[in-house]
Amino acid sequence: MREECRGLARAAVRLDGPAMEALLQRTVRAHGLVAAWEEVMVPTLHAVGRKWESTQDRYVEVEHLLSWHVSTVLRRVPGTVSGPPAHLAPVVLACLPGEQHTLPLEALAAGLAERGLPARMFGAAVPPEALRAAVGRSGPAAVVLWSQSRTTADGALARQVASTAFGLKGARTAPVVFLAGPGWPVRAVTAGMRRPRGLREALDAISALYAEPVVPGTSPP
Q: Which residues contact residue 11 at a Cβ distance below 8 angstroms, ignoring those fewer than 6 apart?
């Protein structure tokens, strides 16, 4: 999809918001969300980011406008007609404290909606207390913690989330924690955690959780 990337980059440099949005919507319809994200949205965002880094902070406005329209299109990706079943435990999506990069989680939320799975998006820089409260109150099947850089990856907080149990006595469960993003080192992955390498892998792994039975008194696999 090189032509889509070039067209999106040219529209971004022109600050042509309507053209960007129309091209992004066509790409999602033609190729699907995952391919549009991995092959058009991310490469173009990276290219624009490299452009302003190499030109003494010029083109910052280009990256901001492009990010806005990517976010807009992601939130408009249609989910299933009926929506997620009410009884399904949700997936909690959160950026770690100090982390402002939300677009990857927005892409994941869109992918979950496409698959009819419920998600709770808490956005950027979620404080530790708020994250723990969200997990304890929503009883999620999975928690996805995004870290863009090593400075925001917090292994201790991830372990606290992974050990958060909820439910009735004798049938308590804990969520599977997904350490998402390039900030997480491999050594951060411990029991009850997984480290997906991309959007497609994360969607497949989360979807599999809903097909696997959970034994009362244990954590999900």
A: 19, 20, 23
pTM assigned to the model: 0.88
| Number of domains forming the structure of the chain | 2
Structural domain boundaries, residue 56: 2-75
Q: What is the pLDDT along the chain (221 residues), one digit of tens a residue?
A: 789 999 999 999 999 999 999 999 999 999 999 999 999 999 999 988 776 555 565 678 999 999 999 999 999 998 765 566 667 899 999 999 999 999 999 999 999 999 999 999 999 999 999 999 999 999 999 999 999 999 999 999 999 999 988 766 666 788 999 999 999 998 889 888 999 999 999 999 999 999 864 433 344 44
| CA atoms of 112 and 133, how far apart (whole Å) | 22
Q: Are residues 39 and 96 in the same domain?
A: no
Which amino acid is located at 90 in the chain? P
d(C-alpha 213, C-alpha 208), whole Å: 10
Helix (H, G, I), strand (E, B) or coil at 207: helix
Contact 124, 188 (CB under 8 A): no
Quick one: 38 and 142 in the same domain? no
Residues 110 and 187 reside in one and the same domain: yes
Q: Positive or negative, the Cα torsion across 163, 142, 45, 58?
A: negative
